[in-house]
Specification:
With 136 residues, this protein is α+β, with helices and mostly antiparallel strands. It has three helices and seven strands, in the order E-H-H-E-E-E-E-E-H-E. Strands 1, 2, 3, 4, 5, 6 and 7 form a seven-stranded mixed β-sheet that branches. The longest helix has 18 residues.
Length: 136
Amino acid sequence: MAKYIFEHKDKVRDYECDLQGIVNNANYQHYLEHCRHEFLLANDISFAKLHDEGTDAVVARLTMQFKTPLVSGDEYVSKLWIKKEGVKYIFMQDIFRLADMKLCVRAQVESVCLVHGKLSECEELNEKFAPFIEYN
């Protein structure tokens, strides 16, 4: 059972759809990333500040399962929760169509930190994420 800690609502724009009239698969990555960035901002975490201090959080692996397509004008909610495995932060993310709460996408996004160019723990993120993380 998912233990969502954050959600972000948004709406599908016409230009995000392909010839079949559904959201192009690549755009779901944008939706997922936007939700993660909104989560970071809501928790006073700045990518720019981290970068300036020598830390870059990067996506190492992403898997998505497509369940129900979104179409232009659909409103959706992207929800997430976090696990930690070693140096990886694993964002578990689901996107639901708001009209009927049907699952559209289920994703697992593995992120790691490069501190001064080396794979490492980021103490600031560990501290800020501590209240939210489920450890494996």
